[in-house]
Amino acid sequence: MENFIRTELRLFHRLGIDNKGVVQMAGLGIQNPKIYKGRKFACRSLKGKGAQTGIRVIYAYSEEADRIELIEIYYKGDKENEDRERIFKRFR
What residues make up the domain containing 39? Predict the structure, then answer.
C-alpha cells in the first residue's frame, strides 16, 4: 500500500501525472468527494505480475483537504467489480 500511495496517488493527485493507473469512477452521481479506482497496484505476493496484478483499490479523494479515504481493495480474480452499494451508503 505504501508503494501505491507514494507512486500512483502522489503522481496523479499531487503532481498531475496521469500514467493510466488511476481513473475517476463515472456514473456514481457523487460530486464530492471524487471516487477513484486504482488499477496499477504492484504486489510482492503475486510475483511475476508487476503492476498488472488485478488488485483494485477504490478510494475517495477530497481535494480541499488533500485527504484519501480507502473504500475497498479487491482482487479481480475473486470479484469482477467494486461494491457500489458500499460507496453509495458512505457518500450519498
Answer: 2-91
